[in-house]
Amino acid sequence: MQNNRVYKTGEYVLVHPEKYKGTKKLVYKSSFEHRVFYWCDLNKNILEWDYEPFPINYLFMLPDNAPEHERNLTDKKEHKYWPDVVAKVKQSNGNVETFILEIKPYSQTVKPTEPKKKTKKSINKFLTALQEYLKNMKKWEYADIYAKKNGMIFQVLTERQIFS
Q1: Which residue segments constitute the domains of the chain, with CATH numbers given?
Q2: How far is Cα 105 from Cα 143, in angstroms, rounded to an integer?
Q3: How far apart are CA 50 and CA 88, in angstroms?
Q4: How far apart are CA 13 and CA 26, in angstroms?
Q5: What is the pLDDT of residues 53-62, one digit of tens each?
Q6: Which of 15, 44, 95, 118 is the one with CA 20 to 30 A from 60?
């Protein structure tokens, strides 16, 4: 395990490699990802899983009725979003559901509020956080559409679900 300045990172070593269907080396970028990898690997109801298995195209653009300062933070271009984990899960009723899972800190799932003190630094920090939030919302909107079209369920996991 390496420890960068913010997040715990390292290579995950599989206990049940037969369940992992990916070809990518499993490198977790946070303790949240590590915990989800561990859960997928050891949970008997996870039949198979993969890490960043496919891209989902999304357009980083907001509707015309969105606030102008938010629209200005988008580039109006198509991007690729790679969901963190896709897992086939055997439910308690015996049905098998496929989940597309995104792993994020809760703070990145809520819209940031404008700072009370309007210093250059605080405004820049706010605009960066707002842009990240808007980008996540677009990615997840497109991921949800993709999931529904393909008989899957899209879900964002935060520390509130992962560590409870």
Answers
A1: 2-162 (3.40.1350)
A2: 18
A3: 9
A4: 8
A5: 999 999 999 9
A6: 118
